[in-house]
Amino acid sequence: ARVWALLPSEQEGLESKLGKDVSKVGLSKIAKQTKFIKEGKTLRVEKLEGVEFVDVVQQKLTSISSSPSLVENVLIETIGKPVLDDLKKRKLIALGKVVSFNATKGAEFGKQRTKKATDLTLEMLKDSSWKNTEFKSYNFNALGKPVEGGHLHPLLKLRQEYREILLELGFQEMATNRWVESSFWNFDTLFVPQAHPARDMQDTFFIKSPATSTTFPDDYLQRVREVHNKGYHYEFNDSETQKNVLRTHTTAVSSRTLYNLAQTGFKPGKYFSIDRVFRNEEMDKTHLCEFHQIEGFVIDYKLSLANMMHVLSEFFGKCGFNDIRFKPAYNPYTEPSMEVFGFHEGLKKWMEVGNSGVFRPEMLEPMGLPKGITVVAWGLSLERPAMIKYGLNNINKLFGHQVELNFIKQNPICRI
C-alpha cells in the first residue's frame, strides 16, 4: 500500500523513501496485481479490476502491539502461523522468554534463617537442649558415599589362585625372601658355566653395594668348584662366584632348598615358590625387566620327563589352560629340557609361559643327595598366563606404571 501510494510519480525514489527491503517486497506484490501500460516513452501502472492495496502487515502489527505479552500459541490463533513466520523472517516481530515467580509464605517461614541439627550430641543430652532443637530429617534411602580403600592387584589374585592349586596338589611352599643373591647360589650351584652369556651385564643386574658375598658352605663350595673344573674344563674363579646380583630366577630358591634337604635327610617331596625376579632385557609388549616366576620341583627316585609333563598338565588343567605345548630346549642345569607354550587368543599366537626339565647330576651330587635321586623342575611366568586370562595384549597394561587404576579397582576376581 505504501509503495502504491508513491507510484507512478515517484517510482525512481522508492528505495530512498521506503528503504530497499520495503520497496522490493512492495513492488513484487504490486507486479502480481497490476498491469503496466506503455504510453509513448512512459510506463503507466494500473490496478486490476477489484484489487485494493491494504497494508495487512501494518494491521497485524497494530493488533499485536495492543497486547504485547501474547504467548506464541495465542499469536498463531490470532494472525495465523504463516503470517507469524513471515513477520519473524522479516524481523518485524521477536519472540522472547519471560520467567515469572510467585512467592508465598510457607509453614516454616521466619525472618531469621536457623540451621537444623543433624546429630544428637552429648551436650544436648546433658543440658536437655535437644527438647527445643529442630533436627534435620534423615533420608534412609540415600546411598552412602563410596568407600575408597585398597584393592588387590590382578596379579595378586592370580598368584593366590595358583598358590592354592599347588597346595591342593600336595606341594610345600619354599621361603623366597632373597631378591639379592650371590652368583654362587644363582648360577654356580646350578652348574651354569662362569662364561655363560646369561651372566653378562647384558642379561643380569649386578649389585654395586654390597658387591660381593663371601659366606658359603666351604665343603659345598669345594665340590661345586670341582664339578665345574671337571665338567667345563676351566679354572673355577672364586671372585666370579662372589658377585651379588638381582635374582634372575627363583631356581636359586630351589637350589638352597635342595641343599638343605640333603643336609637334613632326604625324603620325597614336592615344593614350589612364587616371587619376583629381575633380568636386564629389552622391554616390549610381552617382556619386562621385572616379573614374577612360579618355581616348582618334585624330588623322588626314578622320576622321568613323563612325570614332569603329567604334573604340568595337571597344574595347567586346573588353571584353565588345556591348550599347551612342550618344545625341546636347552638349559645348563637340566637335561632333558622343555619350553612350555600356551595359546593366546588375543594375540592369536603361541606364547612361551615357562621352562622345565630334569636337574642334572652335576647339580645334585655336590649337594650331597643320594645317587639315583631324580628332580623334575619348572619355572613359569605369572604375568603371561595373567595376560591370557584377562585378555590383555600388552604386559605393560598388567604390571608397571602404565597400569590404569580403574583396571585394578574394577577387574573381576580371577576364577580358575
Which tags fit this structure?
416 residues, alpha+beta, 7-stranded mixed beta sheet, two-stranded antiparallel ribbon, 16 helices
Low-confidence runs of at least 5 consecutive residues: none
Question: What is the typical, i.e. mean, pLDDT?
Answer: 80
Measured as a percent range, the helix fraction is 25-40%
Portion in strands: 15-25%
The H-and-E topology, N to C, reads as HHHEEHHHHHEEHHHEHEEHEEEHEHH
**How many strands in all?**
11
Overall morphology: elongated
> What is the terminal-to-terminal distance?
90 Å
Structure at a glance:
Helices cover about 35% and strands about 20% of the residues.
List the helices and strands and how they pair.
Layout: H1 2-6, H2 14-18, H3 20-32, E1 34-39, E2 42-47, H4 56-65, H5 72-79, H6 81-89, H7 122-127, H8 154-168, E3 172-173, E4 180-182, H9 183-186, H10 218-232, H11 238-241, E5 244-246, H12 251-264, E6 269-278, E7 290-301, H13 305-319, E8 324-331, E9 334-344, E10 349-359, H14 361-364, E11 373-381, H15 383-390, H16 405-410
Parallel strand pairs: 3-6
Antiparallel strand pairs: 1-2, 4-5, 6-7, 7-11, 8-9, 9-10, 10-11
Can you offer a commentary on this structure?
With 416 residues, this protein is an alpha+beta fold. Helix content is 34%, strand content 19%. The chain has 16 helices and eleven strands. The protein has helices at residues 2-6, 14-18, 20-32, 56-65, 72-79, 81-89, 122-127, 154-168, 183-186, 218-232, 238-241, 251-264, 305-319, 361-364, 383-390, 405-410, and strands at 34-39, 42-47, 172-173, 180-182, 244-246, 269-278, 290-301, 324-331, 334-344, 349-359, 373-381. The strands form three sheets. It has a seven-stranded mixed β-sheet with strand order 3-6-7-11-10-9-8, sandwiched between helices. It has a two-stranded antiparallel sheet with strand order 1-2. Strand 1 and strand 2 form a beta hairpin. Helix 5 packs across helix 6 (81-89). The protein is elongated.
